[in-house]
Amino acid sequence: MLERVLSMRRSSPHPDDAGAGVTSADESKTKKQSRASILISRVTNHLARLPHVIPCAWPVLLLCLVFVFLVPTLIRISRNVVCVSDPFDPVSRARFFGFDGLESDFGSLGVPWCRPRHGKTVEWTSKDLIKGLEEFLPIYEQRPIKNNMFGMGFDHSFGLWFMTRWLKPDIMIESGAFKGHSTWVLRQAMPDTRIISVTPRHPEKYLKKGPAYVDGNCTYFAGKDFIDFGSMDWKAVMRKHGITDLSRVLVFFDDHQNELKRLKQALKAGFRHMIFEDNYDTGTGDHYSLRQICDQDYVRGGGHSCFKDSDEARIRSRRKKFWEKAVDVDELCGHNEAWWGVRGYMRDNFNHSNTPMSQAQHFQNSRFLESVLDVYWELPPVAGPSLTHQSRYDPARTVPPIVEDGRYALFQRLGLSRLDNSVFNGYTQMVYVQVSEQ
Ligand SMILES: C[S@@+](CC[C@H](N)C(=O)[O-])C[C@H]1O[C@@H](n2cnc3c(N)ncnc32)[C@H](O)[C@@H]1O
Asked: Which domain of life does this protein belong to (predicted)?
């Protein structure tokens, strides 16, 4: 791994590295070429001294020499050209994270993970996920809202459907419905279960302009009836719907609010199962997320360096050229080298509000979260970027995908190759959490 990181750094087109990198690469290329020409001339000299060599063998020998010396040089040159000319080129990206052995930088950038109190995890396995994918694909193809820009794409739609179907709640609450795509996904998972949808604008309003989904077995707190999740009298609402066991309720948040705030509100109401759609990575997104909260110095893959000459800075700068959501240290770090949250801020409400936060506060937030956490599970991306051609999330900051890079036969067998590439571009580490009070 270290060797790979080092070789990546040597060929890095980062301006800081350019001088040294280019010079040494050129030097070694010159050395290799001069060694090659010495060898060629030695071989030809030797052959010239052999008049008995059959004349028709000469073209074959020359061809061999071309293959041995010229072709690898041409391949090396063309690779460098691909790398520099189009940073989002899928071929160069594919090479970057696997096919030429340069796997993602786990360990260097890593994936921070929230630590549940008793080390408990989910019941489902990767086999269950693959089976689920096979089942979900034809359902997804029937979705009423084909273009769900600003809403969920394929990865999270699958995750929400799979987890809801597995958990089989007695009632589902969603906060943030937009045109109703997530309501439709919940309905596909549980055809007869009540949904409560809390969203400022009623999805029926979107029907005037195009496709939207309004559910017949759903109570909407929308439009003039909108009440924020945190202000709702959940006891009364649950009683009204005959729910007595709150551990049978699933809450889905896709409302871009501070997730610490939402988690505390849900705990207060007595809910235990939650799915957060946008579990943004540190330095990104418009609200403070669980992933950000758990990104701490003491967690593997967590804690960051704002030092511009660090290994992390070099890796980040290189990855930014390939992945749209990757952030380099300039973007990651704010005033006084604050890297936590987003540049030391706790964002809320689509970033309409943001509050500066000390590292000590950020640390306390993770202590609180871990003190109530029973399960933390991030949905993996459905398939590797070389299969989906997505270019947004950085695979060095996610868990391995369900269908890993290189498994094209499986990708095709599951029918995933039928989907438009654009549906794979919305992955933001959707997370399922189970909590209970201390
Ligand atoms: C990203 S969209 C939701 C997308 C939807 N879940 C889907 O998959 O298509 C965010 C939604 O949250 C709504 N929203 C804004 N503030 C909210 C709040 N305080 N509570 C609930 N929803 C809110 C917005 O109006 C918008 O409809």
From this structure: Eukaryota
Residue nearest to atom 9 of ligand 1 (CA): 151
Task: Report yes or no on 62 lying in a domain.
Answer: yes
| Domain at 369, CATH number | 3.40.50
**76 and 213 housed in the same domain:** no
Domain, as residue range, for 79 = 2-85
| Domain assignment of residue 93, yes or no | no
With a Cβ cut-off of 6 Å, ligand 1 is lined by: 148, 150-152, 175-179, 181-182, 198-201, 228-229, 254-257
Virtual CA dihedral for 331, 336, 341, 346, nearest 10 degrees?
-120
End position of a domain, from candidates 23, 52, 85: 85
Query: From the centroid of its chain, how far is CA 81?
Result: 27
Instruction: Give me the half-sphere count of Cα atoms (radius 13 Å) on the Cβ side of residue 82.
Output: 14
Give the global pTM.
Answer: 0.79
Please state which of the ranges 63-72, 328-337, 395-404 shows the lowest mean pLDDT.
63-72
Q: Is residue 380 part of a domain?
A: yes
Q: Candidates 140, 150, 178, 209: which one to mutate for ligand 1, based on the most atoms within 8 Å of Cβ? A: 178
Q: Which atom of ligand 1 has the smallest separation from the CA of 185?
A: 8
Phi, psi of 19 (to 5 degrees): -55, -60
* Distance from residue 177's CA to the centre of ligand 1 (Å): 5
CA of 199 to the centre of ligand 1 (A): 6
Tokens of 236: 């009364």
Tens-place pLDDT, residues 347-405 = 999 999 999 999 999 999 999 999 999 999 999 999 999 999 999 999 999 999 999 99
User: Per the structure block, which two tokens stand in for 153?
Assistant: 């794409």
